[in-house]
Amino acid sequence: MTADSTSTLTEILVGGISRGAMYALVALGYTMVYGVLGMINFAHGEIFMIGMFACVYAIGAFSVAWGDHIMLNLTLGIMVAMIFSAAYGYANERIAYRRLRKAHVLAPLTSAIGISTFLQYFIFLTVSKDTVNFPRYYSDYLTNHHINLGSAEVTYLQLTILGLTLVIMTGLFYLINFTRLGIALRATAQDQLMASLVGIPVNRIIAFTFILGSALAAIAGVMFSMYNNVLVFDAGYRVGLKAFTAAILGGIGNIPGAVLGAMILGLTEALTTLNFGSQWDDPATFAVLMLVLMLRPRGLLGERVADKV
Question: Domain total for the chain?
């Protein structure tokens, strides 16, 4: 293998891991909600999409208000995106799930799909039906500067995505395993009735799960829009489907499984693009999913029920 091919392979692999890290942040929302409620939040992809648009329009407002201060405006833009997505996630829980928890399993599923369609076309009709570009002034520094990894080039944006994802995963691990809130989350996931009998506010814990998952999806949305430089109203459908696939691949309801599944998904897409072209990404992704589920129907880490939340 020549130096050029090694460099290309390294860059493709880093790109795949970076994409997998973004999928992981979205997949965590799916797997946390399933871990607590045993239900799939099919509006989660649109929460991701709302975070993308909220950040871009917030950056525009801040730039008009006090000028183009890159770090300040970008940081505040990410915070605004997290707030908007968390608010929509909370509303989703109140509207689509809270009143339907004891209904037939198809009732909250249908409600969530309805909210997903509503949010997608709400953005289409009120914000933009066309592709929106991420402000290049805020992303160029991260995308144009790089470090050398051997003979390969790794952009600052890829390093930022990987570093931010690692910090978030570490914080989430600490939250779930070493805090009172984490104990409440795990207790609610195991038995909502018993958790309520010992004084755990189950409704608040479930709402917090939606809020936290939505905030993580917003961060992924900002990173994804910077990575691709474009936003579109139906972006949440495609990314949400990939993240949901990652959650199933790793074992739905299992947080380490969601991360593992997302990384496998990102690397599969990267290697498929390298060898066959980007048009084969989706077939390869779902071929891997089918293969894993045939061999392990519960996913790669699906049997670790005790660690699912």
Answer: 1
